[in-house]
Design brief:
The protein has about 90 residues and is α+β, with helices and mostly antiparallel strands. Helices cover about 40% and strands about 25% of the residues. It has two helices and three strands; from the N terminus they run E-E-H-H-E. It has a three-stranded antiparallel β-sheet, with no helix packed on it. Helix 1 crosses helix 2.
Length: about 90
Amino acid sequence: MHHVMNYTLDNQAFTMESSMVAIGTDEVYTAMAKTVGLPAAIATKMILTGGIKKTGVVIPVTPDIYLPVLNELETKFDIRFIETNF
């Protein structure tokens, strides 16, 4: 996955790239399975253990949800984004 973001800060233009590479283990544990299934499983665990207290259908765009998920992906599964600014 690769994102390129252009933004302006204090009238100065910047570009930031964010890349993530995941390699599957085999035909069952594919990169797609890891990058889709693991975040869903981590969020489910958070709901069951009280880490997510919101109810109903929630889009995971708030730091209280996405930061713990990203942290677990990085620390336990070595899945991370690498960001560069230029």
